[in-house]
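Supplementary Data S3. Sequence and structure tokens for construct A.
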Amino acid sequence: MVESIDTSRQTSFATGTRFFVALLAVAHAAAFGSIWIQSAGLIGPSGILPAGRYFAAAKEQIGARAWFELPSLCWIFGTGHFIDVLCATGIALSGLLLAGFAPALCLALLWACYLSLVSAGQIFFYFQWDILLLESTLVAIFLVPWTLGRPRGPHDPPRLARYLIWWLLFRLMFLSGIVKLTSGDPTWRHLTALTFHYQTQPLPSPLAWYAQQFPAWIQMVSCFIMFAVELGAPLCILGPRKVRHAAALSLVALQVVIALTGNYAFFNLIAIGLCLTCLDDAWWRRWRRGAQADVAGARQAILPAGRLSRTLLRWFAALSVGVTFFKSVASMSQGAANSPLVRIVEESVGPFLSFNTYGLFAVMTVERPELIIEGSDDGNDWREYALPYKPGDLDRRPRWVAPYQPRLDWQLWFAALDSADASPWVGTLCERILRGDSAVLGLFSRNPFPGRPPHSVRVVRYRYEFTDGPERARTGNWWRRTPIDFYIQPVTLPPDSQ
């Protein structure tokens, strides 16, 4: 029983915290790097949704409050080339954080830079890992030493800051399980969701095809295990030491399986990093030579927290726990979600995207509609544009892409689930193709009209499914598809704009 007692004097968490911060740095580098590559075509001046036009419209509609509703350094420095500056700065800060230089300052600047990009990114940044990265970064500021150089030794984080990280981990995992049950989706309640998931998820990995071939009983058992981990393990985070370690490792295993069968950008990196903070230094001793010296060093090298940092941590903890508790309750209860208190809280801190509720795949998509963009010069011969990672050609194998996130590929998956009226930006995408915009065309892996743009463009919606083993052996195809409808009928540029 003595071993299971967890006190700050007996147990240190320097190693797990160091790995978490390192994974956070890698996630930031992947996020900023992928945005830098795609930003011109997505939110650049001639992109699909220009950020400059978005900020101007926000200021015109809501006035000075737009600065609060869309917190971004772009209000001061503009968009255009400053987006590239933000991305380059983010990558540089990620490198410094990974090397251990001025960790608290690097985290604070990374948070400000990434919030600036997310505020400018509109629908292309509406992903849970974007807000998870922001919230994790903000909390991590209180985990690391507040020094402008490299810490002289391992740093054991303040206990209150560690509890904030565990509270974030609890919400991320537990709510992901709860929303699947409270959504009323029968596929989750009947444990049949995984019979659809591997082929209907936005960007399957190559292993997803093989997972899809498992018999229904294996999929149901896998779904049950997933619920056991998502709902059970988070409840054990504050339990005895061995129970906490088992819970953390089961959550890590779940994230590894998810990463192997799907491409979810940097989500899995952050989630695994959060889990590693639950493993104390004594546990790491078994896997790393010299860890005993690290543990001793951690106890001797703790930088004394100043009065300001202690005070800020207490106030931040009160704010974070209070806000996220109310938002978490609201996510599970429609009545609570409509309460005035929740609305006031959301209006006060919501724009900063750092006090969040979570829950992936609350409702399972049981079919996979895909949007295929085609161009033609004569209205008869239609040639397909191809994006680098979403399904297109039937014989193209699903690809590994995470932690890089192809945001247009992702967003087209969501657009296909509804009508074109719900995603007017797809029409803008067609217009950019007709105008031959090089930044937008750079997002595609195949442009069937490299010399000049086509006369007309249309968007066809297909139903995609994985092939089975015999069909793939016979045809070599990973996918089969069936036409559904015209998402956008053939369109051309107006005569006065051609």
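Construct B, processed identically:
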Amino acid sequence: MRLILPLVLSVLLGACAGGQRFSLNHIDLNQAMAIGQNVVKASSDLSDSEEIDLGSGIAANLLGAAPLTQNAEMQRYVNRVGQWLALQTERPELPWRFGVLDSANVNAFATPGGYIFVTRGLLLRLNNESELAGVLAHEIAHVLQRHHVSAIRKSAGAEALAGVANMAAAQRGDWRSQQLGKLFSAGTELYITGLSKDDELAADRAGVVIAARAGYHPYGLISVLQTLNRINPQDGAVALMFKTHPTPASRMDALDQAMGNRMARYETGVIDTPRFAKLKK
């Protein structure tokens, strides 16, 4: 399944033609904020290929629970926006893949190596493209800072994660399968238990920067959090997201304290595009 997943995604999401190009001449966010530079050292000993291998297995588990929606136009659109955002990061070489899960729940997920998913339920609640960019950028930030890899290390044990590096040379197929199964299970469980509050808030901060760097209005994510804050917490569609994330109100407060008005000069960024309006029809 891990070998098939990249092919399935590439076919369903279509060719990764670059998204709409926005002028970046007025943006110099390298001086405004640093992103992805304080990665947990314990998670940095996996190579990119090992991280991708780990993430593809976890992504396969997620797709087993909620398959990709069959709306090819929606898949291509989300992939184009996501690819453009990923190009603005310090890991553009990852084989980034973006997709929409066929679920009415409101949520978004990332796995190591660059697999990003949003649910159809979340996408249909968004109001413009900058909000989509904010959501995708938040998930991209988790990958950049290897939050899931660090959490898996704590859950499955350092020896299990270190074993990934030896799998290619392993002669015993049962041992390899056992190690992979342990890691995939630990990784998949994170989508039920959630990452730490600090990881989520760090991804919010970095996501705002990534979106602005890509030419979007920097507060698209804030708009999404405002929408989520208005939803009844007892609504089953948001139950898992509210369980695995800090409250929308606390996330907005944290962003306000971290950012202040330092991003105000980037408020000329793109808020919406005709292609988003077309998608919502």
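Residues 32-271 form one domain. The radius of gyration is 18 Å.
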